[in-house]
Amino acid sequence: MEEAVLYKSEDATIYMKATGHVTALVCPPLKAAVFGRLDSPPRVEKVYLDLTDCEYMDSTFLGLIVGTQKRFSRLAGGLRGACGTIVLFGVNEACKGLLRTIGVLGMVEIAEAPPPFPSDLERLSGEAPASARFLLEAHEELSELSAENRKRFSVLSSVLKKAADAEGSKD
User: Fold this and answer.
1) Could you tell me the CA-to-CA distances from 95 to 52, 64, 118, 122 in Å, in that order?
2) Are 15 and 121 in contact (CB under 8 A)?
3) Which long-range contacts (CB under 8 A, 24 or more apart) does 94-101 make?
4) Model pTM?
5) Using CA atoms, how far apart are residues 55 and 64, in angstroms rounded to an integer?
């Protein structure tokens, strides 16, 4: 199955759908769309992520879920439940295992049946590879979740920090 993320903001709801093996390749445009909408009025009340057709999520995508959850919760006034928590649907056992291992499972809500999604979700695709800074930020989100994650991502974060610093010095 081809890697893709689909997105739509409608009224006070964000709809996302991930398919295939979701990696850092599709994360930058998704983050730009989601964060842009979260930061714009009217306030977002619901964020849905359909993982029915998602076979695998890399750590960058997991970091994006964490970052989105943190921002959504903060903008919703720290409330949990219907307002302030991302709701995931169609989470297979492989993806649930990744969410559990990294510590994301406790931050989000898992629901059995998705609400009706709009039929005209926009396919987002990356024009360029994710920058080292983007990758670093996603992994910093994961590292903040636990000491285990800090250890798990310490070498990668160190390499990404050096690469991000080098990227910054070219600007």
Assistant:
1) 10, 15, 24, 23
2) yes
3) 94/55, 94/56, 95/51, 95/54, 95/55, 95/56, 95/57, 98/56, 98/57, 98/62, 99/57, 99/62
4) 0.92
5) 17
- pLDDT of residue 171 exceeding 80, the answer is no
Domain boundaries in the chain? 4-126
Angle between helices 27-38 and 132-143 (to 10 degrees): 70
CB 159 within 8 A of CB 139: no
Domain spanning 4-126, CATH class? alpha beta
pLDDT tens-digit readout, 45-91: 999 999 999 999 999 999 999 999 999 998 877 544 446 899 999 99
Phi, psi of 81 (to 5 degrees): 100, -140
As a whole number of Å, the CA-based R_g of the chain is: 16
pLDDT band at 170 (very low <50, low <70, confident <90, very high): low
C-alpha separations of 96 from 5, 63, 77 in Å: 18, 15, 27
Q: And the tokens for 149? A: 């994650």
Q: Which two tokens stand for residue 169?
A: 């010095």
